[in-house]
Design a protein that fits this description.
CATH architecture of the largest domain: 3-Layer(aba) Sandwich
Pfam families: Aminotran_3
CATH superfamily of the largest domain: Type I PLP-dependent aspartate aminotransferase-like (Major domain)
Distance between the termini: 41 Å
Radius of gyration: 22 Å
Keywords: Aminotransferase, Pyridoxal phosphate, Transferase
Number of domains: 2
Protein name: Diaminobutyrate--2-oxoglutarate transaminase
Low-confidence stretches: 421-428
Mean pLDDT: 95
Shape: globular
InterPro entries: Aminotrans_3 (IPR005814), Aminotrans_3_PPA_site (IPR049704), Dat (IPR004637), Ectoine_EctB (IPR012773), PyrdxlP-dep_Trfase (IPR015424), PyrdxlP-dep_Trfase_major (IPR015421), PyrdxlP-dep_Trfase_small (IPR015422)
Largest sheet: 7 strands, mixed
Strand order of the largest sheet: 4-12-11-10-7-5-6
EC number: 2.6.1.76
Number of strands: 17
Length: about 425
């Protein structure tokens, strides 16, 4: 199928199709199939919206059964059986075992809408307007979310000033700079000139920012500062959450309990649009309808989300993710980085980055990603100037497919850098 109809009639705003110029028709598991039948290994996975792979059979069966019975598809925020079952399952399988006591808020079906809701709630609860965000963070492109997003390319098209946000360096973004000490200083110095914030918001692993992983110690210290000063802690678990970190919530490894958790992307389990907030009960100061939307709580997404939680339990998915994570880590360090000090490897769970920013060629990562696509592997570039190759396989990736994808990445990097493979190294 020709791409002319898209190039002629679709807006210039399209982006992924520029990097992956094929027309896709089918998908299953880890594979995307182009209209001509070519199979591509998908390590983009709907930008993290498909943690359980394309068309997961277990989840699909429950979706089809639900539709076959003509159960309700659109219910606004009315009481429905689908919503009740999702909340109950989520609470029983995730919150109670972790000792978490949260209320649920279903908002518009995108991550950025959930971020907007979190901002509204934090500001109204504290009666303060400023928010602390972090350099390298990405939280969405609607007005409030964009104000929290540091990328100048995204910010420049806002059309209005983006205010009431103070940016601090993330843990790994500024060598030698103690961002937490600076944060405490501005909170305690009456001449800092920076308004006390309503909240701090962050991804525990910055995805679009270049796969920057916050340490458990840093996260715990940041949470401690927030508690000391009465500042709400918002965890943006939109991409690194829903099991991708190795635990369902990415902040679990730090032993902290955020005041507000934002979830979307893989929440529905099937790529269906869904987003929600979890927040401590005392924060529930909303008046009816203060933040709403026609698609707040898509019924089919509730069914998929419940099925995804059951699938996780039945397959012991967290353990499998941690095992594959260790395997990927070894491969990237031994087969790709080796002794090359110009390559940095960062990641957690099933989100990994190969940082090539120390090379002189600023387009190196993009060239490698393009050649990977020619070899039928889909990976994207992230980070400052897109110099980090991002690996985002499904949590369910088959071992042979994982091996094939990692080999393609290794061989393609070696072709561009002249670095010879260490074929004697075993990652088993």
């Amino acid at each position: 199928m020709l791409t002319q109809v898209f190039e002629t009639m679709e807006s210039n705003v399209r982006s992924y199709s520029r990097s992956f110029p094929a027309v896709f028709r089918k998908a299953k598991g880890t594979l995307l199939y182009a209209d001509n039948g070519d199979a591509y290994i998908d390590f983009l996975m709907g930008a993290g919206a498909l943690n359980y792979g394309h068309n997961n059979d277990f989840i699909k069966a429950q979706l089809l059964e639900y539709m076959a019975e003509d159960y309700i598809m659109q219910g606004l925020d009315m009481f429905t059986v689908a919503k009740s079952e999702f909340i109950t399952t989520f609470n029983d399988l995730l919150l109670k075992p972790r000792g978490l006591n949260y209320k649920f808020q279903f908002c518009g079906p995108t991550g950025t809408n959930a971020i907007e809701a979190a901002l509204k709630l934090a500001r109204n609860y504290t009666r303060r307007s400023n928010v602390i965000s972090f350099m390298g963070g990405y939280h969405g492109l609607s007005q409030g979310s964009l104000a929290l997003t540091s990328n100048q390319y995204n910010r420049q098209v806002a059309g209005v000033g983006l205010h009431n946000v103070t940016f601090l360096p993330f843990e790994n973004n500024a060598a030698g700079f103690d961002s937490l000490a600076y944060f405490e200083m501005i909170l305690e110095d009456s001449h800092s000139g920076i308004e006390k914030p309503a909240a701090v918001i962050l991804e525990t692993v910055q995805a679009e920012g270049g796969i920057n992983v916050a340490s458990p110690e840093w996260l715990a210290a940041l949470k401690g500062i927030c508690e000391k000063h009465g500042i709400l802690f918002i965890a943006d678990d939109i991409q690194i959450g829903c099991g991708r970190s190795g635990n369902f919530f990415s902040f679990e490894r730090a032993g902290i309990v955020p005041d507000i958790v934002v979830l979307s992307k893989s929440l529905s389990g099937y790529g269906l649009p869904m987003a929600m907030l979890l927040f401590k009960p005392e924060l529930d100061i909303w008046q009816p309808g203060e933040h709403n939307g026609t698609f707040r709580g898509y019924q089919l997404a509730f069914i998929g989300g419940k099925a995804a939680l059951e699938f996780r339990e039945q397959t012991n998915l967290d353990a499998a993710v941690k095992e594959k994570s260790a395997y990927i880590n070894r491969f990237l360090h031994e087969e790709i980085k080796g002794d090359d000090e110009r390559i940095s490897i960062r990641g957690l769970g099933m989100m990994w980055g190969i940082d090539l920013s120390a090379y002189d060629d600023v387009l190196l990562a993009k060239k490698i990603a393009q050649d990977c696509f020619k070899k039928q592997l889909i990976v994207e570039c992230v980070g400052r100037h897109d110099r980090v190759i991002k690996l985002l396989p499904p949590l369910t990736v088959e071992q042979d497919v994982l091996d094939k994808a990692l080999t393609i990445v290794r061989d393609t990097i070696q072709q561009h850098t002249g670095k010879k493979a260490n074929l004697q190294t075993s990652v088993a």
